[in-house]
Amino acid sequence: MKNKIAVIYKSKYGSSKRYAGWIALRLGADLYEINDIRGKDLEGYNTIIYGGGIYVGKINGIKFINKNYERVKNKKLIVFTVGLDSKEDNFKKVIENNFNKEQLENIKIFNFKGALDYSKLNLIDKFLMKGLKSSIDKKSIRDLTDDDKIVLEGFEREIDLCDKKSIISLLETI
């Protein structure tokens, strides 16, 4: 049987959608925004790829995978996240907060860089970003991480770190 692939995403500002589109195009997969697919639709696929942005330690829309996990646990499962934080320890915490032990054994997880345009954020996200900026502003210049600098720059202009080449490692696992 041919490996039938579904790429599903939830995108708040567009980066997850871009990655999902790139992945689906390269794999010849079916592409779904999360609101356009139901759990029972997953049964016709051998491989499920889910992508969402990271917001306050949670993967956007991951409840869909968690809710349907029993239905798809015997399929090839891949999750990609999109965000600006590149610290491995922070990413490990995100993964631990979003998946249980069994899921971590069955799901391959990838993290991709996203984009930031402060002017396009909703009110809540602007508030959260201002809080983050406030904590970064308290650091001395020499203590700023690359991620800190990116966040600060994102208040001045649009930052786009999305990279089509970064999906290669995900594609190679299929």
Question: Which features does this protein show?
Answer:
six-stranded mixed β-sheet, two-stranded antiparallel sheet, 174 residues, 39% helix, 23% strand, alpha/beta
Write the layout of secondary structure elements.
Elements lengths: L4 E6 L4 H13 L2 E4 L13 E9 L2 E2 L3 H5 L1 H4 L3 E8 L4 H11 L2 H6 E7 L1 E2 L6 H15 L8 H9 L4 E2 L7 H5 L2
Parallel strand pairs: 1-2, 1-3, 3-5, 5-6
Antiparallel strand pairs: 3-4, 7-8
How would you characterize the overall build of this protein?
It is a single chain. By secondary structure, this protein is an alpha/beta fold. 39% of the residues lie in helices and 23% in strands. The chain has eight helices and eight strands. It has helices at residues 15-27, 63-67, 69-72, 88-98, 101-106, 123-137, 146-154, 168-172; strands at residues 5-10, 30-33, 47-55, 58-59, 76-83, 107-113, 115-116, 159-160. Strands 1, 2, 3, 4, 5 and 6 form a six-stranded mixed beta sheet that branches. A hairpin with a 2-residue loop joins strand 3 (47-55) and strand 4. The model has no long low-confidence stretch (mean pLDDT 91).
Instruction: Give the C-alpha Rg.
Output: 17 Å
Main sheet makeup: 6 strands, mixed
Mean pLDDT: 91
Number of helices: 8
**Element pattern in H and E:** EHEEEHHEHHEEHHEH
> Which structural class is indicated by helix and strand composition?
alpha/beta
The level of helicity is 25-40%
Low-confidence stretches: none
Work out the strand percent: 15-25%
Strand elements, count: 8
Distance between the termini: 15 Å
